[in-house]
Description:
Helix content is 44%, strand content 21%. By secondary structure, it is an alpha+beta fold. It folds into two domains: 2-85; 133-287, Sandwich (Immunoglobulin-like), CATH 2.60.40. The strands form three sheets. A five-stranded mixed sheet has the order 3-2-1-5-8. Strand 6 (200-204) and strand 7 (209-213) form a beta hairpin. Helix 1 packs antiparallel against helix 2 (48-81) and helix 2 (48-81) packs antiparallel against helix 3 (97-126). The protein starts with a helix and ends with a helix.
Amino acid sequence: MLFKYIYIVFAAMAATFITATNAFSQAIEDGIHSAKPGQIGFMEPASPIMEGIVSLHDMITVMMLGITLFVTILIIYIAVKFNAKANPVPSKTTHNTLLEVAWTVIPVLILVVIAVPSFRLLYQQDVIPEADVTVKATGNQWYWSYEYPDHEEITFDAIMLDEAEAKAAGHPRLLGTDERVVVPVNKIIRVQVTSNDVIHAWTIPAFGSKIDAVPGKLNETWFKATKEGLYYGQCSELCGIRHGFMPINVEVVSEVEYEAWLEEAKVKYASNDAPRSREYASAQEITE
């Protein structure tokens, strides 16, 4: 029974170690765009928040490895030194004040070491700095609608490309959209998130951004992308039969490119018919 327990502990240690090392190597190999088949660890972080999440994860993983190794060594030591053959006359000791204080205080200290960076990270995620750009994302069954509140002309829907279109455009399967959110690099982006029907969730893993889109409620999150590129995300709430077909594309560009895109977008989207989200709202008003 003892050796079975030791085997389980060592298996858990090996799995944790493999996960930790793969997380590091996978991040370097995968770049910043999307997850790859067989990936175990995180994507390479592309925002200060995600960097904090990865650092906290790595710190806790190392602590888990240390604790598991210590407990395993302790179990082996006890099994060897205090088995019936090696120690035929058992000790009748019932209390050890130092040991009892240690096994109470040390776990408390470990939790404090985990809690301090955890609460700091939660605060940074929750408190939104003064934004340079605001984007409003509205979840619909099953696509996203976007608005730039500072530019009323810019409002559009982003629909998933079919498999052939995604492949032709170089997107991963189920992740490409016909339109994409464009934001400048190294700027604070506030994302206001709501829904027209059921609960969705707006998520970009590389930014460490994830927040529910709730009907009748305006939630907010933020990110500061530190690397240019095209980033992928998906709805992360079970929102119905086509839940897996609500991808998110965010393109991070230089400030000059962003200003040029704004001018083009004001013309492009102002000339479009009303987005589907507005059509939905109009239909709701008629129904009511």
